[in-house]
Write a structure and sequence with these properties.
- With 318 residues, this protein is α/β, with parallel strands linked by helices.
- The chain has 2 domains: 70 residues, no CATH class; 229 residues, Alpha-Beta Complex (2-enoyl-CoA Hydratase, Chain A, domain 1).
- Helices cover 39% and strands 15% of the residues.
- The chain is built from 12 helices and 9 strands.
- It has a 7-stranded mixed beta sheet with strand order 3-4-5-6-7-8-9, with helices on both faces. The protein has a two-stranded antiparallel ribbon with strand order 1-2.
- The protein is globular.
Length: 318
């Protein structure tokens, strides 16, 4: 046996030719622990293929899978006062905002857009839980008002995807004032005779649940989404009793009349098209004639490339 040619040289070659595998190519399901490849997870709309756990989606990911061809136009939202209370806890409020903007690549916790789903024009708003837990501040209030005004102007229905930990503490009473402001915005839609559909995703809690998230004409939730004002742990500690299994989860709320439907993410777009056209008095569409959404797997590759600076694909033959 030639030790140099059979062992040392292949070992050296493998060291120099080895490709680094980006860490963001795999995601561990928080529910069952299964390791999921990023392309397969994206193709399954961020739903675990093993246990069907619905993982978070950013507003841009959700809009790409909602609108025809993933094509939409952002609606401009007026910017509020940056730091009205000069709030500071462990960090200054502006510093927290900068950190959230850097981590998410977004200006704030809600994105508003207009486009078509199933050739049906709509306006959509979506909260980003990764941006300071999707907390409801003045910007979110402005975003909902902008979405409602745009929907009324264009005579389109409004679809809102909620995901929030509640009001934003750094804005104090100004954050709580968004509850009546958004209620007035919803009333604008009602007076115009336009549908307002809310899709509650995990988690939707606090002042968001106590205002615009529960004022829709139709309430839909994703499977096992936590939907509540005060969380189950707080309630258990207050009343000193064990809560029922699945308390405040989407299926429990459906059984008790708080929701109209619980729909898996893969069927959400089709259901929304059907509901919107029905509420707008339009004729049903033929399923095979609908334009498809964006290629979500390619979006996952773009995110992986942007994060690492290298192509996301792995050459399995190397």
């Amino acid at each position: 046996m030639n030790w140099i040619s059979n062992y040392v040289r292949p070992k050296i070659n493998s060291l120099f030719s080895r490709r680094e595998v980006p860490e963001n190519l795999w995601t561990k399901c928080p529910e069952c622990g299964t390791m999921l490849f990023h392309r397969e997870l994206a193709e399954n709309l961020n739903v675990c293929s093993n246990c069907q756990h619905h993982m978070p989606m950013t507003p841009r990911e959700r809009f790409a899978t909602l609108f025809d061809g993933g094509i939409y136009t952002e609606v401009e939202v007026p910017a509020p006062v940056a730091d009205p209370l000069q709030f500071r806890d462990q960090k200054k409020y502006p510093d927290r905002m900068k950190a959230a903007q850097k981590a998410t690549g977004e200006k704030e916790a809600m994105l508003v857009a207009e486009g078509e789903i199933g050739r049906t024009p709509i306006v959509a708003a979506c909260q980003d839980f990764s941006f300071m837990a999707g907390s409801m501040g003045m910007y979110v209030g402005n975003a909902i008002i902008a979405a409602a005004e745009r929907a009324v102007k264009l005579k389109r229905p409004l679809i809102l995807f909620s995901a929030a930990g509640g009001a934003r503490m750094q804005e104090g009473i100004l954050s709580l004032m968004q509850m009546p402001r958004t209620t007035v915005a919803v009333e604008m839609l009602r007076e115009a005779g336009l549908p307002y559909i809310v899709v509650l995703t995990h988690p939707t809690t606090g002042g968001v649940t106590a205002s615009y998230a529960m004022l829709g004409d139709i309430h839909i939730a994703e499977p096992n989404a936590l939907i509540c004002f005060a969380g189950p742990r707080v309630i258990e500690q207050t009343i000193r009793e064990k809560l029922p299994e699945g308390f405040q989860r989407a299926e429990y709320l459906l059984d008790h009349g708080m929701l109209d439907r619980v729909i898996a993410r893969a069927q959400m777009r089709g259901e929304l098209i059907t509901i919107v056209r029905m509420l707008m008095g339009l004729t049903p569409v033929v399923a095979g004639d609908l334009p498809p959404p964006a290629d979500v797997a390619s979006l996952a590759d773009q995110r992986a490339t942007a994060a690492t600076g290298e192509p996301a694909e792995i050459d399995e033959t190397s």
